[in-house]
Amino acid sequence: MKITCQREELREALSVISAVVPARGAKPILETLKLIATEEGLELVGTDLEVSARISVKEAQVDEPGVVVLPCKVALDFVRDLFSETVTISCEQDKCIIRGGTDQCELVTLDADEYPVISHFNEKDSFSLQGGNFSRLVQQTAFAAARDGGRYAMHGVMVEIADDEVKMIATDGRRLALASQPLDADGRKSSAIVPTKGLQLFSRVIEDPLDQVKISFDENQAGIRTQNAQIFARLIDGDFPHYSAVLPKEGEHLMEADRDLLSQKLRLVANVTGDEARAVRLTISKGKLELKGHCVGRGSADAQLEVEYSGEGSEIAFNPDYVLEGLKQCQTETVRLEFQQRSSPGKFILGENYIYIVMPITIDA
Hints:
This protein is α+β, with helices and mostly antiparallel strands. The protein has helices at 7-20, 72-81, 131-141, 196-204, 259-270, 320-328, and strands at 2-6, 32-38, 41-47, 51-57, 61-64, 66-71, 86-92, 95-100, 103-108, 127-130, 156-162, 165-171, 175-182, 190-195, 212-217, 221-225, 229-234, 253-258, 280-285, 288-295, 299-306, 314-318, 334-339, 346-351, 354-358.
């Protein structure tokens, strides 16, 4: 095998593969990547058996086709720190040499026959979506998925396709994010729980938000194909929470506030709260919102801002971190909060077809 390619393009491809390959795999082969050089070009393959990636290097000159498996992290680190504009990769027997200018690295290779079989994207029953819209849906929901503990199904994002619309829903049991986008799906219906890591990698390989990407689901995995990448994620088994049953209807109390100002005031008041009592009380009266944070042994903090509210006075308390994470994704300058009573979930309207539900916290008066 002998290949010459642009260092920056190779570095980016290695970076994507490195996001998949574990630093310490159950087997040494899982800490490697596979290089496949053919007359059509160069392809990099990596997997942790849950998420897999195929990345094409467009500007590769293949002088000698071949297949080689080599340590992923070392290859990325070396290519990243090179100064040359081009990189040459050549392999002989059980060694692979990466050269850039006068610098080179010699890596030990593994048996390519031992590398896991990674599928190719299946066009059958796939559908198209503009890349920017797909990335937006992931960004608006994935942050709310469970990270530690909780039901295993909550560690992914539910993707539903029905009524010519795609929805993504994520929850950790304390908050829930739901975003949707019109989709020409020819009346098809499907749903699957996709690992958060997989969806985030899907978004990462979308280079141009205006490009159409292909997405497919089968019984075991979800896949996405862009111009130079194919990413696959094994679906999560389990029962996702019946989210539609817990979505609150329009509440008795409706408040609208400036997104940036509300974020600023929340951060300000949250500074005084402790890790064990992470809560901020929101007291709403006509035209005004008061925020208060308190922590025994630290003190208290108060702030207020003008809001659109004309109902009877009310209050509700939230974990400020949850609210702030949602506000970061807000698509509009004004955020709307709806809730029925202080013990009811708060529904934040963060944009068109985008809602964020946060469970309230009970705090002492």
